[in-house]
């Protein structure tokens, strides 16, 4: 997958990750808004395998319901 990301210019060839985190969620679960620790180098890459969700970015996020959030930038994970 990483080789494809480099080929498709999603990741630069000088920025190949050497680790990953895999999160497994039950249907209806979500990850709440958070800030990744500054020790994690940028850029980061998020891959969703079995869901069509949005990832929301911003400094002012709004909680619409326990599992629904809003922010200034929303990008679909298809």
From TrEMBL:
<comment type="similarity">
    <text>Belongs to the alkB family.</text>
</comment>
<dbReference type="GO" id="GO:0032451">
    <property type="term" value="F:demethylase activity"/>
</dbReference>
<dbReference type="GO" id="GO:0003729">
    <property type="term" value="F:mRNA binding"/>
</dbReference>
<dbReference type="GO" id="GO:0006402">
    <property type="term" value="P:mRNA catabolic process"/>
</dbReference>
<dbReference type="InterPro" id="IPR044842">
    <property type="entry name" value="ALKBH9B/ALKBH10B-like"/>
</dbReference>
<dbReference type="InterPro" id="IPR037151">
    <property type="entry name" value="AlkB-like_sf"/>
</dbReference>
<protein>
    <recommendedName>
        <fullName>RNA demethylase ALKBH5</fullName>
    </recommendedName>
</protein>
């Amino acid at each position: 997958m990483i080789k494809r990301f480099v080929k498709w210019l999603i990741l630069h060839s000088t920025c190949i990750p050497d680790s990953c985190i895999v999160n497994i969620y039950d249907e209806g679960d979500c990850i709440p808004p958070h800030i990744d620790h500054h020790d994690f180098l940028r850029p980061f890459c998020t891959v969703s395998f079995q869901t069509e969700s949005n990832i929301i970015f911003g400094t002012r996020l709004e909680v619409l319901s326990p599992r629904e959030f809003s922010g200034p930038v929303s990008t679909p994970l298809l």
